[in-house]
């Protein structure tokens, strides 16, 4: 083919190439190859992760049914349902019931096995029970709040390995943490609560708990032989930064810097936080804010070279302030007194450090706009609901009113933004009060001893959890048990209480001085000092009452026998027996009397060997109780919170049913116990939240990937780069190239040293890879193995430890699987789950399991019958009630209590008791007073020559305390001794003088808070006779008005078949004063009295009421009760207008009640956006494209078929896509209701755009779509 002119022309042209074109092309090619390699590596990494996830899923599918049930219901996946297996709700329900059934069967067999080997020395059953409220998903209708009871139970059996007569054999402990279900209480009476708390008890007064007996635990199988001791321990219960920040550059610090530094040290002192990072952040913040922290202006005195400009100074301040204050603190819990220390310390720092927190909160409140929803909600809540709504000023309500509203909103379906807006107003009102700063510093100072005691009890609860979960096979079991015993004995001996009292007294001497002089800079008045002094007295007396006085009598006084000599033990046991023989009420009926009956007094008169064996047996029992007895109920409080989270998570609309909650509570109890076993986690700082599959994939990849061994070049490069200290990446690359050239040119003899160093370090890394990770418990110990591991980690380096942490985790897993902990016969779990895989029953039919659970744990509990229970009235530890002094002392205590109430004497009042028959004068401060039982605590003081009040100390350095009953007992005995020579003692002549002294509080030497007396304020006389009480005069109304009288209702009661038997009276005649006092005590005992007016027969009550009515008709005690004509025309007009308003209000109320009744019965068709029935409502076509689907959160297109769905009774309906109806139905569990509504739409229903519109004809395509959905739901 001939060449064309164009091609010839093109071929004749020569193009000069651009300079360095080949270099640029090669560079682009290298970049493309690098990008392709990175993309391929990323794709390969993603594929490996995907393959790992698929292998996990395939492993779960191909696993045995027992293994699948174990992974689903006996691991943490129970609380995070998300796999496809868990979406089949009907299958999940049956499998959950099967797991619960297997658990109960194994529990019964395990408990019975403990009582089979032989003769147990004693059995201790510890039960911690508490009731709470929870909302359950109803089977139909609206959800309701139920009262439930949770129990934390452990069973401890002490057995002998060989012949029980051979005392040389070491005893063997066997412990079972008994997983117990929640119990729904039938009522709120004491019998119902007690029945629910003991329904799952292994050892109780009537044998075995009701539910546990229905499960299959036969009472005879857990019976113990005669001579063994069965002990039940029951514990139960029945809260925008300011712009004023300046940087001042100075050459030297100002003269007041030492004063400012002292205030900063006071702020940092006793800062309570479990986070080391928080303490370090506060230290850095105080070092930067080195000015006067009491001023509002944040001043930083900057030395040369510190800050370059004011903007840099402000930036540094914000970087220090925002992370510290934004972290906040844990929510204080009122019922457990938890997190109060960190919260108080946080507020102390926020107020003392330039008043940052209160000013920030006030700035937030002033700049916040309360939305319409909050305003309307407050209007509805604060307005009178029986009248027309009126606009209400929310600022006129007090903090107590708003707090009451917040508690009500927590039970309603109100969004959290609205609730937080109300809480913000409440907090801002408090911080803006004038005394908030002073109260904050005072509370922080007084809370330190409380925080000490709370942490003490929490640490012992942790020890009990570890003992129960780890078992006797754990190497630290004996150490933890000894620590638990020591903490219990320290509490019941009163040592802990005296230590706390000494801490409170130190507040008067040192810490309050710092808080007032440094924190408040002395800006206090005498009333504030008086309040501080009274609070210290209150804390001391209440601590003494709770932690010292309560443990002075039986049964806690028995623990004083531990460690006593044999002679002292026998003498004390004989004294207890003598007291028990003379009056059985002087010891408690539940423990001491039973123990005395088991070990009679004759044992004290036997041979020395018998006495020694008797003492050892009693001490062994007391020490075992000291080791296992809980001191608080906080473990059950934790389970209450876990149960509420499991059943109804806050903010979630989906609730669990009652049966599902009961079954899952057993599984939850097992899992929580299982996870107390210590395990290690890989040392890796996560920068984002990982899902479980990603975490597993990362760990497996890091365990299996190949790590290149160290070489001499690595050591040479690391050492040379350390010398350079490079930061810039470009300079780093250049230096690496030069180092590479040097390494290549280096002789082999010089390289040998680096090769040796690399081989040594690689050997250390290989050794570390075979060493298990240090667990949290082991990291706090100082054993040789832990010390060697830490030294090896430090020698290898931090980066290498991170790379090897996953491999070391595999060593931990192997050690955990091969641990001896799983070999215990009383343990339910294994290394893979909280319940052994082989123990899961897969052969029993679903019908049998369902019937078994329905007849056992799902049966309602019965009320405990206490009609036949007869307990003698307990004598107070100060004086026996059969003593002649009992009547006199009780009358003195009652009259003293009446005097305190009448004169309104509060805690901190200074009292002085004296009498003519003795020279003893008792000066004391009034402490905590109780009404039931009548108790007044007193803190003794002494007046020196200068009129100052000094607290006398005992041998332990603690002030002396007493109760009013103890003080009156000493005076009564002194009176008896003074008149004993005259013959019979007439206690009616006893008289005590009570002087109320006035005092003020001053600073002594500028460091100690001391009271100084000002003389006698009032004088009274306390007599043993009953004081006459003044009767209240009947009230009278002006203008002839009279109070409406409430009509008495005649209640006809049927005679009960079993009348409550009266308590036995002790022998001996009581005088009239004793009968008066007992009658007064019975009047104050309320509903707990055994004999009350409600026990009268119906005939007696009816006759009494008829006589009372006739007496009122014949005699009118109110002189102005007759109808009087108005005295003026204005009064007559006002009265007429009032009658008209009353009739109108009555008509409106009747009409409202009529409409309410009709609406509830469905007889009135009302236009409303709300519905009383949840679920699917209607279907139609979207009028616009503005609606959003409730399920998938995507917009619904115009003219697209949609369905309305009511998800709350307090909210209008929302819309759903047609394809989202089935997922929403399955998620809500309203399948039957949805099928019924769809049938109505298909046949004769309606379709509308809103629930308040009138019904419209259903379009054909809407009917067709509803029929398709209905077909799918019916086929499932």
Automatic annotation (TrEMBL):
<feature type="coiled-coil region">
    <location>
        <begin position="1131"/>
        <end position="1158"/>
    </location>
</feature>
<feature type="region of interest" description="Disordered">
    <location>
        <begin position="1027"/>
        <end position="1105"/>
    </location>
</feature>
<dbReference type="InterPro" id="IPR036910">
    <property type="entry name" value="HMG_box_dom_sf"/>
</dbReference>
<feature type="compositionally biased region" description="Polar residues">
    <location>
        <begin position="1084"/>
        <end position="1095"/>
    </location>
</feature>
<feature type="region of interest" description="Disordered">
    <location>
        <begin position="1"/>
        <end position="42"/>
    </location>
</feature>
<feature type="compositionally biased region" description="Basic residues">
    <location>
        <begin position="1044"/>
        <end position="1067"/>
    </location>
</feature>
<feature type="compositionally biased region" description="Basic and acidic residues">
    <location>
        <begin position="24"/>
        <end position="35"/>
    </location>
</feature>
<protein>
    <recommendedName>
        <fullName>PARP-type domain-containing protein</fullName>
    </recommendedName>
</protein>
<feature type="compositionally biased region" description="Basic and acidic residues">
    <location>
        <begin position="1068"/>
        <end position="1082"/>
    </location>
</feature>
<keyword id="KW-0175">Coiled coil</keyword>
